[in-house]
Specification:
This protein is an alpha+beta fold. The protein contains 12 helices and 28 strands.
């Protein structure tokens, strides 16, 4: 293994030794950044890794993130025309060509290739320009069309398409491994899609270098250079782009004012709190004046109190910055609070796109119903009995496994009977004071102050979560009756598709 650490600025030294991988540590990245040789280093490492057919390994997550920051500044003038590296945190590439596969590993491999060929034999930049001219303007801020991506034989994105409006805030929400971060990196230019197109304001950007795309990315691990001051960190990308010094100073000063970090400009990251470092990382993106901000789980490293405060600051910042924002998160509270629309992802595909309360109150399928909302929606197996809940009104009536019948406001819409799942949010299930309702035995009581969550099971063993008042006296093991609000119920058919209550007339 070739280990790139402090003191080595030439790759020729390593060519005389046999090794099977290239390792880059943080001191090497820091040293090269300090010498303003960052782009040359990235180009050299790309050449070595590809030329010798071996993985290039980052020492740790922070080093991998700092390399991403360097690569995000790449432009045609850097001379780097090959595909940007991929930092994969769970797989290791083994073999080459069609026999390549990915296996579990703990290192942070950076693997390289070439971008998809441009049709018509044009260079990537020229191709993008001509297609932009043909497409015209006036389109949505961002367009993703049929994006597909695999790592070896492992598909991670399958036909993802999305239109995003100018100045809109969108959250990519989904569990780990659903493809949301890979999609964000494809937009940023840190990954290339196998198929599909990415357009920003009508211009195709998926074949442009990251620095020419008009986007700025804020990384999960901040990726600030510890040897640089806040001012130097924020100015770093602009210096690489050869922006005039007076303009750099003006942009940094304005971003510091907006983010309220002016007193910290001459500090180094190690002298600042996690929230302050996050603001610096956002400031480094703001000074680029991008058309699109990309935030990769920006709050995940903060404690609960700081996360809440920074969430508010992000919402206020979006009001002041005239640009679209995409945020990747697995925290639904962040998505519900900040986003104009939520994109729920699972199993390589988009499951639903919509405003937060629409996704919450009318989930497209059973996955969205379970994933969005805390606690999760109750999903109770039930038998569809037919309509005629009130004089033949055409709404579905179901019977639960314990025999309880529930009259819903879900139109039959061709339901022919059979098995379904009844979906109920916990607020649609209340502890009943009398003897009516579904009988249940309490398994857990969660006291939240303003309300009490009661986790129980019905006579048939089905798990159900309901609510009681904040000063509830219910204890584990108690038997209670639960009143089910059929008007708030959802039905999910055998395919998992959601069917929702009809809107009540005014």
């Amino acid at each position: 293994m070739a280990d790139f650490g402090t003191g080595y600025s030439s790759l020729s030294y390593f060519r005389q030794f046999p090794f099977d991988k290239v390792k880059i540590d943080q001191s090497f990245v820091r040293d090269m950044a300090a010498k303003s040789q960052a782009l040359a280093v990235v180009q050299a490492v790309v050449g070595l890794g590809r030329g010798l057919g071996m993985p290039v390994v980052a020492e740790d997550v922070e080093t991998a993130a700092q390399l991403d920051v360097l690569r995000a500044e790449l432009r045609p003038s850097s001379g780097l025309r090959d595909r940007p590296a991929r930092v994969d945190r769970g797989l290791r590439r083994v073999g080459r060509g069609s026999r390549c596969e990915w296996r579990d590993r703990s290192a942070h491999d950076l693997t390289y290739g070439r971008p998809p060929p441009c049709q018509g034999g044009l260079s990537s930049s020229r191709c993008a320009g001509e297609q932009s001219a043909r497409s015209g303007t006036g389109l949505s801020s961002l367009q993703l069309t049929d994006i597909r991506k695999s790592f070896g034989g492992t598909p991670v994105l399958d036909g993802v398409s999305l239109d995003m409006d100018a100045a809109e805030f969108i959250a990519f929400l989904g569990p780990s491994g659903c493809g949301k971060s890979t999609l964000l990196r494809i937009i940023a230019g840190l990954e290339f899609a196998d198929e599909g197109e990415v357009r920003l304001e009508g211009r195709r950007i998926d074949q442009l270098p990251p620095g020419d795309r008009g986007v700025a990315m804020v990384f999960q691990h901040y990726a600030l250079y510890p040897h640089m001051t806040v001012r130097e960190n924020m100015a770093f990308g602009l210096r690489i782009a050869k922006v005039p010094m007076d303009e750099i100073a003006a942009r940094v000063a304005e971003a510091a004012r907006v983010l309220e970090i002016e007193p910290h400009l001459d500090k180094k990251p190690g002298q600042m709190s996690g929230g302050q470092r996050q603001r610096v990382a956002i400031g480094r993106a703001i000074v680029k004046h991008p058309k699109l901000f990309l935030l990769d789980e920006p709050l995940s490293n903060l404690d609960a109190a700081l996360r809440m405060r920074t969430r508010i600051e992000l919402a206020q910042l979006h009001q002041r910055v005239d640009a679209a924002v995409i945020m990747v998160t697995h925290d639904q509270a962040e998505a519900m609070t900040l986003a104009d629309r939520i994109v729920v992802m699972h199993d390589r595909r988009i499951q639903q796109v919509g405003p937060p309360m629409e996704v919450y109150s009318r989930p497209a399928n059973s996955f969205v119903a379970r994933f969005v909302g805390s606690p999760a929606m109750n999903m109770l197996p039930a038998e569809l009995l037919g309509g005629a809940t009130t004089g033949g009104d055409g709404f579905a009536r179901v019977r639960l496994g314990d025999g309880t019948t529930v009259d819903t406001r879900v139109p039959l819409n061709g339901f022919a009977g059979g098995s379904v799942h009844l979906g109920l949010r916990p607020e649609g299930v209340r502890v009943a004071a009398g003897a009516s309702g579904a009988a249940a035995e309490v398994e857990l009581v969660e006291r939240l102050g303003d309300r009490t969550l009661v986790y129980a099971h019905l006579a048939d063993g089905s798990a159900i979560t309901g609510e009681d008042e904040g000063l509830s006296r219910i204890r584990v093991g108690d038997r209670v009756n639960l009143a089910i609000d059929g008007g708030a119920a959802h039905l999910f058919d055998a395919s998992g598709a959601g069917h929702h209550a009809a809107e009540r007339s005014a």
